[in-house]
Amino acid sequence: MELLTIGEFAARSRLSPKALRLYDRLGLLAPARVDTVTGYRWYREDQVERARLVALLRQLDMPLARIAEIVVLPGDRAADAVAAYWSDVEERHARQSTVAGHLRDRLSGRRTHMYEIRTVDVPEQAVLTERRHLLADELPRWIPSAFDRLTKAAAECGGVAGIPFVAYYAEVSLDSDGPAETCVPVADVAEAEAYAAASGRTATLRVEPAQRLAYTRVTKARVAHPQILSAFEAVEEWIERQGLTVSGPCREIYFADWEAASASDEVCDVAFPVA
To answer: d(Cα 15, Cα 22) in Å, to the nearest integer?
Structure first.
């Protein structure tokens, strides 16, 4: 079989000789023959298609390790893998676009949404909780699943006795993992104590003290990170202007049916305990 020199193969595959040497080292595209003395490379004609595939995948900024996984897959599975990769890229780009918009407004001092701040006094309540260290992009999956588990547990403890909420004990972002705590108020404290003490339970029981909350209402469209950060900042600024102090972890109080709500419906209070 006639072999192509590295220069000929580079021209046919639309890859530079430098890239071909790199892909050889990474095991992506090994030459058919290498001269043991000079190190010169030759390639087969039937390697051109694979080389072109590598070149196209690189145009998607796909990491080389991901390319190595895809080029060995059969056609349909390779196509699915490319689709999955691109879906991740689009999701990441959408998230980054939102962050860029938030940063633009923040740095320019322009607030695109005005928040009305209110206060409410909340009585002491017993809550079943799950606490977890996790990043911001994990919250949308964890919060509803944890609420579901705790709501089912509350049914064994006299029922749900208040509005579920998530308390944040430290920053939760793409780089900081909290912790965060989902909380569901329960009616029967004795039953809740027995439930939380049972072997293998993930829920714990604690008592939330009576307290005053400063809060603002947020629509479903603005609950996502980082849009919701502007609501937290608005409440914090109001607290400072009023000469109050924050006396506990900030929280998101989910008072509406998330699934039934539209993007413009108010679903959540962003709140801080104050003194």
So the answer is: 11
SS3 assignment, position 184: strand
Per-residue pLDDT tens for 32-88? 888 888 878 888 888 888 888 888 888 898 888 888 889 888 889 999 999 999 998
Question: Within 10 A of 161 (CB to CB), how many other CB atoms are there?
Answer: 17
- 180 touches 167 (CB < 8 A): yes
CATH of 4-72, one of 1.10.1660.10, 3.90.660.10, 3.20.20.70, 1.10.3720.10: 1.10.1660.10
Residues in CB range of 44: below 8 A, 6 or more apart: 1, 3, 4, 32
Bridge partners of residue 120, in order along the sequence:
213
Q: What is the pTM of this model?
A: 0.66
Q: Which residues contact 51 (CB under 8 A, 6 or more apart)?
A: 9, 12, 13, 14, 15, 20, 23, 29, 43
Q: What is the pLDDT of residues 167-213, one digit of tens each?
A: 999 988 878 998 999 999 999 888 888 888 886 678 899 999 999 99
Going from N- to C-terminal start, the domains of the chain cover: 4-72, 118-274
Q: By the 8 A CB rule, do 181 and 167 touch? A: yes
Question: What is the rounded CA–CA span in Å between residue 224 and residue 95?
Answer: 10
CA geometry: angle at 253 spanning 248 and 255, to 5°? 155
Residue 140: is the preceding peptide bond cis (ω within 30°)? no
Backbone φ, ψ for residue 159 (5° rounding)? 100, 170
